[in-house]
Amino acid sequence: MTAAGEEIIRLEKIYKIFGPQPRGRAFDLVKAGYGKAEVQRRSGHVIGLNDVNFSVKKGELFVVMGLSGSGKSTAIRTVNKLHDVTSGHVWVDGVDVQTLPQKELQAYRRDKMGMVFQHFALFPHRNVIDNTGYGLKVQGVEKEKRDEASLKALSLVGLEPYALNAPSELSGGMQQRVGLARALASDPDILLMDEAFSALDPLIRRQMQDELMDIQSALHKTILFITHDLNEALRIGDRVCIMKDGAVVQIGTPEEILTKPATGYVAEFVQDVDQGRVIQVEEIMKDSRPIAQGASLSDAISSLGDRDGAFVTDPEGRPVAVLTGAGGLRATVRGATDLKSALRDDFEKVSPEMTLADAYYAAGKGLPIAVVDEEGVLIGHLDPRDIMEEMGRVERLIEGFEREVFL
Ligand SMILES: Nc1ncnc2c1ncn2[C@@H]1O[C@H](COP(=O)(O)OP(=O)(O)O)[C@@H](O)[C@H]1O
Ligand SMILES: [Mg+2]
Hints:
The longest helix has 23 residues, at 384-406. This protein starts with 6 loop residues before the first strand and ends with a helix. The model is unreliable at 400-407 (pLDDT under 50). It is built from 17 helices and 15 strands. It is globular. The chain has helices at 25-31, 36-43, 72-79, 102-112, 128-132, 134-138, 143-156, 172-185, 202-219, 230-236, 254-259, 264-276, 281-284, 297-304, 325-334, 356-363, 384-406; strands at 7-18, 46-57, 61-65, 87-92, 95-96, 113-116, 190-194, 222-227, 239-244, 247-252, 309-313, 319-324, 349-350, 369-372, 378-382. By secondary structure, it is α/β, with parallel strands linked by helices. Among the domains are: 7-12 and 51-123 and 189-276, P-loop containing nucleotide triphosphate hydrolases (Rossmann fold), CATH 3.40.50.300; 282-390, Roll (CBS-domain), CATH 3.10.580.10. Magnesium ion binds next to helix 3.
């Protein structure tokens, strides 16, 4: 978490109504207190935003969370004026964004903010660095400067080595990283991220969340992040704003949301989290690169790199033994040269769908844990320290919850 400063974005009494006459009867109904369903039934207009108020502080990672259709995208789009509002003000750094004329609006979008969407489209015929610097190119920045900025942005997301690759050579997660790098390349104060990680596999998603938090604490960007996933919101948010039917239900720190749910609706969500916190093994497991068949002890040890250990698999890919860094060292000190004498077979196996709470027992031995599929084939590697760390974080959140309940 970062220390957040003064306010940089403020949505003030924002209403957004979709339909042919947004300021007509529908608006009167909303103002009179009718909810989304009722307004739609009576006027045929859709409420996008209903008296939305929140402010984001400089350097804050502010998450807007809600189910599909709750108004999250509409809200974020008022900030760069992709939507006009029906009523209200959006302030960014003291400027009333909605009043900006077209030309100034373009400059404001370009200089102030970067946007990342769920499905980030890359130009297929441009390489990664050119995709990253595309916004700068449009601004007329010369090639050398552009590449410098793009490389810096790519290094922030760990993609510098891929600068010259084609997008088709990247995985979905890597392409999404390019999207983030593109947004970072012009060094904007504000990042707007609309479900930017929602299409990613759990494991990749968690890595991206970690990277975003790292970038956030290194660069102190203000990030307005949208998600429909409360786990994600609570994991990365400095503060979380929960929306329902176009209205704000609660704004608070993750701890406040968990410990003092403002309404039954939030409480219900939180209850899901309580069970769902309940992170699954596949979300934190690592790549399981096994030890090469027929490797010598010294080859096997050096192939560990900075990993805590690696598995030996049978020809079907099922783990049969594990080599740990410590085990390898002990065998070497004994003067052994064969790999076999350094291996152990008393390791634990878990399935990818198991929750960390269920896999917790397996961490007790302190040995690497093999994640295997239904056929027993090795598909992931769990470092027991990762389980402990993740559960520790969860415990801290839940402890706060229990304190509230018993005091
Ligand atoms: N251009 C549009 N025209 C009509 N209705 C829209 C439009 N955009 C969004 N809506 C409606 O506004 C509500 C909020 O949508 P949206 O902000 O996209 O939700 P979320 O991003 O939380 O899924 C939904 O009921 C949606 O159907
Ligand atoms: Mg949306």
